[in-house]
Amino acid sequence: MDNEDTSGYTRALENRIAYLESKLGEQSGNKIADESASATSTSHVLHSNIPAESQTPDSNQMSFSSSASNLGEIVGFLSLGRAESLTYVGSSSGLPLAVNLGEMVRATVMADVFPSSPVANSGGGTPGQTNKDSTGAHRTIRLNDLLKHRADPPNDEMGSRIIEAYLGRIHPRYPFLDRDELWRLHEDRWRLAKTKPEDLSRNERFGTFRLYMAYAIAATMMQLSEKYTYTAPGKFYVTAIPHVAAACETSSTQNIEAMLLLVIYHMRSATSHGLWYMIGLAMRTCVELGLHRRTTTENLDPFSIQLRRRLFWTVYYLERAISMSLGRPCSISDRHIDVDLPLDVDDYVRDPVTLNSLQPSTKTTTLSLFHAILSIRRIESRIQHSIYRTDRPLQELRPKMDKIYRQLEAWKASAMPRFKDDLEYPLLHYYRAVRLLIQPFLPLLPVTDPYYHICIRAAGDICQAHKKLHQTLEYGHSFLAVQTVFVAGITLLYALWTNTEKVWSVQMSNDIRACSTVLFVITERAPWVKRYRDSFELLVNATMEKLQGNEAATASGMTGMMVAQSYGNPIIQNTGRPVPTAMDSVTPNMATGLAVPQAAIPQDPFQSQFQFDIDEDAMRMAMELAPWMDQPLEGASTPLWMPDFDTLQNLAGPYQYYGITMADDHKKNPVLPLDETISSLPPLVPSTNLAAEIQQSPRDKLPVLVVLDDDPTGTQTCHGINVLTVWDAATLEAEFQSGTRGFFILTNSRALPTPQARDLIHEIGTAVKNAATKTNKAFEFVLRGDSTLRGHFPDEPEVTEEVAGQADAWILAPFFRQGGRYTINNVHYVLEGGSKLVPAAQTPFAKDATFGYKNSNLVDYVVEKSKGKISADRVKSISLEDIRVGGQDAVAKKLLGLEKGSVVVLNAVVDTDMEVAVQGLLQATTSGKRYLYRTGAAFVSTRLGIEQIPPLSATELGLDRSPTSPGGLIIAGSYVPKTTEQLECLIDGRGDKLKRIVLDVEELLAHKDDLETAVSAAVNLAGELITKGEDVLIMTSRKLITGADELSSLNIGTVVAAALVLFLRLLVPRPRYVIAKGGITSSDAATKSLAMRRAEIRGQAASGVPLWRCTEPTSKFSGITYVVFPGNVGERHTLWDLVASWAKPSSGHS
């Protein structure tokens, strides 16, 4: 890193540290501020890597920053060595490794080292949950605190038991350690413990880490499966952590071993949230060292070759398992791997002759289980690659199922005789693979299809296998086990919910009960599993209601059942200890001959089966699963995927579905004072002159920006470019060939019902793509949407991707300063009264009859508008701290680290924020990323490098204001309260200098089949007044008339818009200017009344109010000054000011 970059990076760190310290001081007093100020340089490095989601001024998140800083002394090693360790690693988790491990350490420490803490005793933690004291603040943990709680080496008896537990229960599954070396370290444990760390060699320090991690892993297994009262596993763990630096000083297999040990430990801890990230890093290190290739084993002895293979294939095994469980991608494709599997030999065999001459054998060895499970894991990898994909419809993938199923059957045939005395664990993997293969196709398969029943049987066998394994001392569950049994149980419930008595049997009853029992047993030892257990019970009881013939359950669907329960059904809000699902007794149904659950027969079934409080996390999870269970059967056009475990694990925010919001936006998002809020934000960072950079760059350096605008108001921040209202090939090709950096296409899609809007966007997108291809121009799409979040979202981005291909991410950026639209901490605000920020969902805009919404937080908004299709975990953010402290580099790094398919909320309160964010976006774009933008007006001008100019005066526009000039025309169709308020001000302010004509909406609706007759009188009167030089306001009556639903409301609006279009089209005298108030009104007036095909955007008539001029001879009133006045922009007096300033001198402000 050169000196200039280093100094800039240092300044960014200093700014961030100063800001965080000031916030901590405000929240926690001088004590915490002093502690922050005394943090070591290592902890400062941790500050630099804290993810942006955790860097908002929110108090809880600030606590996270503080804790990460204190943990820097423990995990600072991860920021040492190569420069790459200071950057983000991985494609989607967004967590820097140091903070990720820091949170793992914290959870372990709070649970095991400081068991008296409120968090440790609460039993309510979940993987990935941060730990706070009873006040909500993090407890400060420093290295000295941990050193006081180090574990002494175990005594001879317990030490041998622990090592034997590791080698007997962990090592056969993950055989990457040298067992002889592990015993040697154990025998040398006292010397290693008494020697000062600085006096130990690097290998001895790593050996200490390896030994204590083995202790910790084995002790965890013992604690989960038997009565264990010896040293807490967490104490062994924190004894190991200070020595892990030895593994990170060089890029070696020790790096990989360290990460594997950490992953294996945390698979059974309450902090599984970082596992995918860490195991992915381990795999990428394997690739860097060439462990995946055959050719890298030259010059190694046979035993070392086998150790390297065991190491690589253990990483492979775990990465496949974790990635598939979480629904995330793997780091390397199987086709890039050609290293052989390790030999099926006892792992302690070291003799070179034996290893070189070994022949295939049916003898069972210590590696036979690992060898067999690896084989089926590779089949699962094929399933993930072939079936779990988004680029092909599931219907097209059905033929692939047969071949893979035959491979699974062949594996089972070979495993049965070899493991005949110990089949439970191998067969569990077989059942898991079968369910993984068939389950996505269940909505497409008829219940008579053999595969349907094979899948249900596999799911049942998973539950039964887990029940048996939990009855043994050797089995200690991991989060993978929780995922496996939970998803199997949900699969059974899906089949029962959708096909009821067609699939019900005594066996299914027993299988569901087994799943319930396993989840209850695991919850007793791992409280974070409680939400899975409780959500499963919620779904079980709803399913039982339907099975026993409850008509309400059948009519409302699973979603309706969950909603009813969440709103406080008194039957299901009983207190008490939960019990497993009662499905022991069944009686035959004489009518069908099938078994019906006796437990479902009592008059009050909920009372007998559901005797515990509804946990919010459990309800949120059940609501996430309900749409999948409710989807149509057999031949569904686009089957829903079952929500993956990662989505369920990280559900946050108010649970909602199809517009149902379970939290009050008013309570979550209060109105904020403007000045105090802005002053509390991090200071602005100087930005380069982005506009100049873009304007001076070669025209072909950046893609042409094609802005599909759902109404004409999006042009309000631009000037000097064109807006098209047509998209024929000749017009588009001419625009691309003109050398423009971008242009607008007016779609007016907000005036259309969703199906027609989708068709229109597909048509326009295809035309743009074809024209760009023909003219050899690269381009990007921006879907400019109404700045108060109203429009066809997510439909328009979805259909755009159908045309242009999937983007790496959607960028949601509704900020628009001129319109008083700000996004802070992911909440979108509207400036009211010049002094207060009102959350958007609390404004009249959110009550739009067609496009209303209930959430101001844009994460929740995305989930709401997508009806749960886009889950909250897919919505990321570029925070104001990313922008103002990290700058464009931090923005770019965050964008480059996103998982494909993310939605990114872009926060901004001033134009500089948008400029820095766009610089980061451009930087990410040059790295090959493609983004799809859903934005307000500010993004477009920033991205095009258009500098803002003040509103144009009547003189600058060349308006004829002579006494003989015609009058001006104002057309108002918008119904938003701001428009009504502005019209009142205009009418009162202008008095008799403005002539008003009102079109009665009820009258228009009554004559919708003959609108020309309805408007003819108004047309004639307006023509006479304009000819006389009078300014005329033509407006609709202000009583808002809505239909019974969104579509009928939109149809009413269509009639009103058609009347105004007809009025302007029939008007003969040319006005001095035309002001069209409202997005749909201005669009229709421009295209349908004035026949504009291409217009130049000249600038603004007032702040946030676009000005157009069309000089095409085919347009009506060619060259007229045309004002596109958004319905939701401006203060009460803005329209009055504009009309008065453009009035003839004798009739100005009155």
TrEMBL record:
* Location in or out of the cell: Nucleus
The cross-references to InterPro entries, in alphabetical order and at most eight, read: 4-carb_acid_sugar_kinase_N, 4-carb_acid_sugar_kinase_N_sf, NBD_C, NBD_C_sf, XnlR_reg_dom, Yeast_MetPath_Reg
The highest taxon in the source lineage is Eukaryota
Residues of the region (Disordered) are 28-65, 118-137
Domain Xylanolytic transcriptional activator regulatory as annotated: residue spans: 275-348
- Keywords of this entry: ATP-binding, Carbohydrate metabolism, DNA-binding, Kinase, Metal-binding, Nucleotide-binding, Nucleus, Transcription, Transcription regulation, Transferase, Zinc
What does the record give under GO molecular function?
ATP binding; DNA-binding transcription factor activity, RNA polymerase II-specific; kinase activity; sequence-specific DNA binding; zinc ion binding
Which terms in the GO cellular component ontology are assigned?
nucleus
Among SUPFAM superfamilies, the record links this protein to: YgbK-like
Q: Name one GO biological process term.
A: DNA-templated transcription
Where composition is biased (Polar residues), the residues are 37-58
| Xref: Pfam families | Fungal_trans, NBD_C, SBD_N
Family, as annotated: Belongs to the four-carbon acid sugar kinase family.
What name is this protein filed under? Xylanolytic transcriptional activator regulatory domain-containing protein
